[in-house]
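FAQ: What does the model actually see?

It sees only this:
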Amino acid sequence: MQNSENWKNYVNKIVDNYLIETGTNAIDVERIINGFNMGQRFERVPENPLQQPDFYCPGLRAQPWHSPDDCAWIKILEKNADIIIDTYQQVERDMSELHPENNKLADGGSWNSLFFYRAGQCFQDSFIKYPKLGELINSIKGTDTAGSVYYARLTPGAKIIPHYGPHNYRLRAHMGVRVPKNTFIEVGNVRETWEVGKCIVFDDSFLHYVENNSNEERIVFILDVWHPDLTIPEINLIQNVMKNLITTIKSGSVIEGAPSSVLDFV
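And it is asked to produce this:
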């Protein structure tokens, strides 16, 4: 029999237990706790109508686009762009899987993916098959816990419809691998495109969408890191809460009002 509990009460129990077990001072993670208690996007008045994730931490720099020059980890990726681009020649044959959100977000074509990390889950097969890229990924702090790392293919004519990412705890980088003309991504009403071997960095908690208006495939490499304004205690609490939520939901328990994005924490 399924157990049912209000998701806010459940989250607060997880937080209380975590603070007791770890000895963390509530003041050090106050904005994370406040964010949980603000509720989901339909329960709160957004500070910016273009930024409405399910999980929101107040007080983080809120801008749709970030300069790659301000991100030291981008320099590591771009310095090793040849590894990312060359590896895709091998990866391409393994790109048959649809992205988990393909049916919900893709229109006019398909959105395929090959993951190295997703929502804290490590895809060991990818690391075994592509060890050089795996080593590069793991050289960047937070890639194993902040969200996802994967190749994404968008077929000719396909679009990813406007949507919000699940939270504002991360920044997301895209590196162009194959970039035909007439392709773009728009985040927070600002439109950009990709360049092979170069990265763009954005906050996907802002409304965003993608279009491939060409007759070729668009390929990018995607990598998430934690938002640079988060502290270590805040990151640790977020990880603990999300791990508990996901485990509880996968066990068959019902958490009333839990955001659908809990299981798509990508």
